[in-house]
Protein 1
Amino acid sequence: MIQLDEKIYFYLLAIIPVIIVLFALLQLWKKRTQKKFAETPLLKRLSPDKSNFKSGLKLLFFLLGITFLTLGLVNPKIGTKLETVKREGVDVVFAVDVSKSMLAEDIAPNRLEKAKRLVSEIINQLASDRIGIIAYAGQAFPQLPITTDYGAAKMFLQSMNTDMLTSQGTAINEAINLATTYYNDEEQTNRVLFIISDGEDHSEGNTNDAVEKAIEEGIQIFTIGVGKTKGAPIPIKRNGVVESLKKDSQGEVVITKLNEDVLIDIADDGNGEYIDGSNTEAAVELIKEKLLQMDKKEFEAKQFAEFKDQFQWFLGIGLLFLLLDIFVLDKRTKWLKKLNLFNEKEIE
């Protein structure tokens, strides 16, 4: 397991393309200046030992030196020991709606991005709870199993989009049924499911059965609504540009609306609460309070410990490359000159 101490120093690597551009401009200026001074054959006679590739090699050494010194400043650490630690928390599963209706832009930037931001902000407020993520539309897909790795959770969360599931529509029952398989700890009493959606549900009466099954499994269901009740069209984009609006079989523009009633009913039947997701800060604060009020269950988790600094290796390699840049001369090396590895012709 690798841990980076000072990631901000990665910005120093931005100087590398600048140096390359300046080097290219310098070489161009040299060639133009030399042409004004004398013809190429005469220049070769005046400086027969000048190497054609050493300047590029020196630049490579210099850039490698900067790169490794930057990595040294970032200070990578390697976890050398995997140990078991005890934590107390709640098992939380997020079921995120990724149907096409989530592309509606009645809430900025669109419903899906708003949902992802809500989940991300909730994760930021968690301490030692275990989390899992489900993506659902016409069917449900396990995006991330129960874990304590919040970094991985955010990575998988950001990759979610409306094209990840081929089966469209919105079947909330599928998400709830899949969630019941996520809580693999039989002793865990606090099991929470957050459904983040615009409330469109095409699963008809099957949702009630799924909720009842979840209650039997000890799962408390909260719903978070994203969108506006007045509704909005669903844009069809290509390369970030709106080409058209989604239409129904009659050619009419589809208007998708936030269905709070469905989400409220699911939350009430699931012994939870409906939360308005339009205000991210208020929604996250309310969820944080709800989770804090729940009894915590102790469980064991694996994590890396005894992280050891590795900066000295990168600093050493970086200094070595800088020394090579200093001591490598622009003149041809005699033994390399005999080998003629770079096919540099001798001047007679």
Protein 2
Amino acid sequence: MDAFFRLSERGTNLRTEVVAGLTTFMTMAYIIFVNPSILSTEGTGLPISGVFFATCVAAAAASIAMGLFANYPLALASGLGLNAVVAFTLILGLGLSWQQAMAVIVLEGLLVTVLVLTNLREAVMNAIPMSLKFAIAVGIGLFIAFIGLKNGGIVVQDPATYLTLGDFTQGPVLLAAFGLAVTLVLVALGLRGGILGGILITGIVGMVFGIIPLPERVVDFRFDTSTVGGGLLAIPEVLQLTLVPVVFALFMTDFFDTMGTVIAVGQEGGLLDEEGRPPHLKRILLVDSLAAAGGGALGASSVTSYIESGSGVAEGGRTGLTSVVVGLLFLLALPFSPIIGVFGGSVPIPGPEQGQQIFVSPVTAPALVVVGFLMMTSVRYIPWDRFDEAIPAFLTILTLPLTFNISYGIGFGFISYVLIKLARGKPGEVHPLLYGVAILFALVFAAEPFIS
């Protein structure tokens, strides 16, 4: 094991790697609760137990593959933001079936894989200005936080003002507010696994007060595999030009998030070379891209590298053994689907209109708000004093959550970036690829009334 993972060479040992893997798992295990909650939103048709199984298996397979093939302390699981695209844009927005939505994820993962194998990934990455990369991350953070507020019933629809404050006389809404306060405190105190701790505390309090039901059993070895393979079978149904912008938006989100995560984790662990590159970069990117396709095939949404891996690296993790430990822990979580179903499930409350009923997920909703905060901290890297960079970034951040569509937000950013650069007489600062993408988005916006 020492020779295979190069433990001694990287200044670590078996005990350190196991502790690092456990630490990483604790900081990202919230996805076990949150991913089923998002993908099983009312109207998607995805079963919460099936998504739970797919989430654990996809994360386990990808993390173990990263450890064995790339020997890098990077764990993977279903990506927040990407799962929101599947649930709210592809299924609820465009009206795709969940099988077709997962097929889009498979295609996106295969596209990234081709770019990795042909060494084109860096070329595509260089085409997008840094200001827009950061803006996309910030916009997705706000989108995730908004979904959290909505799922907790803290904000609800209003016929006059579009949105208004929820009804805090309702137990589930109060529970969501309590959970948000607890989770924020835990994260602010710097406790590892603070988000997971917030979910567990909120769920237990909800059970004590009868706001959410008690699980019928603690463990269940009857696994729900109903989502497995659905995305693969539906691939022929999604080979259409109207979905190209959505595939590109998914590709963008997955693509740049991974690059930033790989570098950040490598920097934390001192694993980068003189040019800032981690060892076996192509292997790392190949595992990540195949994991995205695999997540779609299993029904777990796109699987991507987790920045939470840095917590394990901070504990001394330096090799792929850390990732293998994370993967094994995801497999150990599989029998606990009854608990996950209760924690991530929805409960009905009266809606803002007479006789209306809405469903909220008070236990997992606070975690989304906090994750949204963490994702949008990169707003500080946007050059706000340069209007030709800042205005497109602002439009991306503004429109992405308000249109409830990640690809639309990216489209506004790209189009405005090209137009402003041309207006200022700086066409050379725009990569040729960006012109083509901006034109594509413009055509999609123009055709939207006819498509819908």
Protein 3
Amino acid sequence: MKTPFVTKEQLEAIVKEYPTPFHLYDEKGIRENARKLKQAFSWNKGFKEYFAVKATPNPFILQILKEEGCGADCSSLTELMMSDALGFRESDIMFSSNTTPSEEFIKASELNAIINLDDYTHIDILNELTGIPKTICCRYNPGGVFTISNGIMDNPGDAKYGFTKEQLIDGYKKLMSLGAEEFGIHSFLASNTVTNEYYPVLAKILFELAVELNEKTGAKIKFINLSGGVGIPYKPDQEPNDILAIGEGVRKAFEEVLVPAGMGDVEIYTELGRFMLAPYGHLVATAIHEKHIYKEYIGLDACAVDLMRPAMYGAYHHITVMGKENEPLDHMYDVTGSLCENNDKFAIDRMLPEIDKGDLIVIHDTGAHGYAMGYNYNGKLRSAELLLQEDGSVKLIRRKESPKDYFSTFDFCDVLKDIKY
């Protein structure tokens, strides 16, 4: 059973001012989680979380995380611009991209961000564009299949990202010849893991790689970025990750591998998006339609443009019918949106209490990769984003889109000026 961070009474008050659908975020939960992550890695003096901006690119959310000591992990020009506008400075920004346009490298260089190269050919590209900075990072892809004790986690050999080990060795030598003085190592080997093993296993691989790179190239390894991959329990019966146990597992690997090699000053970085934000966001919608044919359907005023993970991945998101939390789950529904696509379903064959038109519906764990992955198919307009503040008040942190936003092209300017909204 998942419990919403907001009550029915609170939602009923909110919807009087902000009609559904909307994304709602929990400031208190976000801050507490950021502090717990920091506590888990407090043994490492240089630890820093670089929040994955792509997960929840809202300036108000980023400001909260900035206040909690987080940096920004950016993957595009716009994300760099947003981070800059919020006052993230120089080493507070990590720029990790792939198939990178020149203007993005140039902007990252202008901001003195830490640049994380995804490919060996990027060395020459960056050098020609801006020169090589004194501190540089490279992304590692070990290839093959990544496993831990409970089985296969992912298949890095099929991923488009990163250097091979041989390319890293040659790349570090080349980068040093071009002026680099300090290096970082970055790797992402599995997504949304719900196991305390992932980070410690990944850390040991990267710590051993750091020692090897130092021995073979003489490069000074300044930091190791464990990237993301620490997930959340989307399903109620899953055990959540214990971030304190994860931090302790990484510490043990650090002391086993790096300290004996004289590399105990290496800083540990993370780039968590889903773990940091997903549980602290709800998509709030209203049941507006019911249909009884070969299956039972409940239609919401939200659709896949508000949350595309179920349509794109078949992902599970828990659903709470507000005010009916204690009623029996004796009705099987497909919970749908209104897109002209049959995969526009938030749930399929889900057992829920009986739903009536007008019921408020909370879809859980949408705080990361929820609003961020929205789109405008069928001319649907993206919903508002709201922040439930620590004092219980609610703040609008992104207005809902209007038809004028949808038609915001040069060709329509003259037509739109006379349209009233």
